[in-house]
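ENTRY TYPE: paired fold submission
RECORD: A
CONTENT: sequence, then C-alpha cells
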Amino acid sequence: MLSKINNSFLRFLEIALALHGFLHIFEFGVALYEEAYLTAAIAAFGAIIMLLSALFLEKGHHHHNLKHHKEKNQHNH
C-alpha cells in the first residue's frame, strides 16, 4: 500500500513539474513580448530545468522494474 501511495505521489510530482515547466515557457513568451530579455533568459532556464526534471523523474522511478532489482528483491524475501 505504501508503495502505491509513493508511486502516486511521484506521478503527481512528475505532472506538477511538467506543468510548472510549461508555465515557464508561457512566462518566457510574455517576457520576450515585453522585451524583458533577462527575465526571458531566466524563464527559459526554469522551463528547461522543470521539464528535464519531470522527464528524468518519470524515467527514474521505474528503475525497480529492472531484472537485477527483481532478483535482489526475491533474495530478500
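RECORD: B
CONTENT: sequence, then C-alpha cells
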Amino acid sequence: MPRSERSAKATQDHEVIRRWAEARGGRPATVRRTGDGEPGILRINFPGYAEQSLENISWNEWFRKFDEKDLVFLFQERTAEGNLSRFYKIVDRETAEEEDIEWAA
C-alpha cells in the first residue's frame, strides 16, 4: 500500500471531509456543553464511539464553525493493514502548516 494512504493528509475542502466521514459512518458533531448555544469543539461522531458526549449537528453548522476558526482536518485514508481508517484530528491552520503533511486535493 502506498505510504500516502497510511500517512495523515490535511484539507480544508468541505467535500473531502464530508465524503471521508460519511464513508466511515461518521456524522458532524460537537462536544456537549462546549459552545454556549452554538457549535463548540468539533468532532466526527462514529456510531459506538463516545456518542453520549457528542451532539450531532448539521454539516452547515459544522463547516461554518470550521471555517470561522480557520481549522484544518487531518485524516488517514487507510490503516497499515489496509482497512478504512477513522483516524482524524482537527487543528488550527498554523499547527498544520508547521507539520510536514501532505495536503489532499
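NOTES ON RECORD B: The mean pLDDT is 86. The longest helix spans residues 14-23.
STATUS: closed
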